[in-house]
Amino acid sequence: MADPTEELATLEYLSLVSKVCTELDNHLGINDKDLAEFVISLAERNTNFDTFKTALVKNGAEFTDSLVSNLLRLIQTMRPPAKASTSK
């Protein structure tokens, strides 16, 4: 049986993807799960506004500052925390 903690993390991630899809749909009229996951991935690697916006622009996404800020805040707030390593 799957670990309940992992199942919860999966549900939290799916909820985040859904929220990012909703934001993209509201601002751009695009409701794409793959795009949402890509944006989440960029936000995880670029944790402040300027680097996140730069990463988006480099990938062809010229979002408004308001959308960039909303997405980054949403992702940082809702992203399940990384699992601590148990290896020694």
UniProtKB/TrEMBL annotation:
Residues 17-74 form the GIPC GH2 domain. It comes from the Eukaryota. Signal peptide: none annotated. Keywords: ATP-binding, Helicase, Hydrolase, Nucleotide-binding. One of its GO terms (molecular function) is helicase activity. InterPro entries: DHX8_GH2-like, GH2_GIPC. Pfam families: GIPC1_GH2. This is ATP-dependent RNA helicase DHX8. It comes from Ophiophagus hannah (King cobra).
